[in-house]
Input
Amino acid sequence: MADSDGERVRHSKAQTPSIVLSEQERAEREASNALVQAKRLVEIIEYWTTEPERKFRLRPSTILELNRLAIDGLDAFAGNWRPGPIEISGSKHQPPGAHLVPELIEDLCDYVNTNWSTATPAHLAAYVMWRMNWIHAFTDGNGRTARALSYLVLSIRLKMKIPGTPTIPELIVQSRAPYYEALEQADAVTQSGQPNLATMEALIENLLAKQLLTVVSEASGRNY
Output
């Protein structure tokens, strides 16, 4: 599948009750949801970074909330784990069975929480970005949820609301190809049980630099 600019787009294909919307209604709802989700992301980040004594732990409830905000009014299973199988058009990866999703999400949270103080922020963000897409826990909005969650983990691990705009999730949407390549490289290595997240980590580091550079551009009046 490709978007209006001809860029390849990975898209979830699940058999679920549909919510009937026109293309314009869907586009408007997606845009509205994106703003609501972004606002909520900022609230969560500020909660965990403004009080040093608060010790962050990633929980499944946070992941469910981010998905609900992304696809509210667009999908009957918004904010719920998918009830059945799913395919990803444009990808060779076949996500695991629906009955495995809750346990896999718990494992993802455990990995982040266990390695919180020892792993780099870029690694944790890369792991979340890849693993959420690999699990494909929802009937829709998997990419939006993965990108939001990765950015949340990165920000909280860095102990700041990262300045600059567009943000990393927005930059990914502007140019999806490197993102898909990083996902596919990690997916390919999982055959041996160990994902290679080097490309995904490099992508996040580069996008973080781009986001921060917008602040420098604004401060200096020069375009970079």
Notes: The longest strand covers residues 11-14. The domain at 19-220 is CATH 1.10.3290.10 (Fic-like fold). The mean pLDDT is 91.
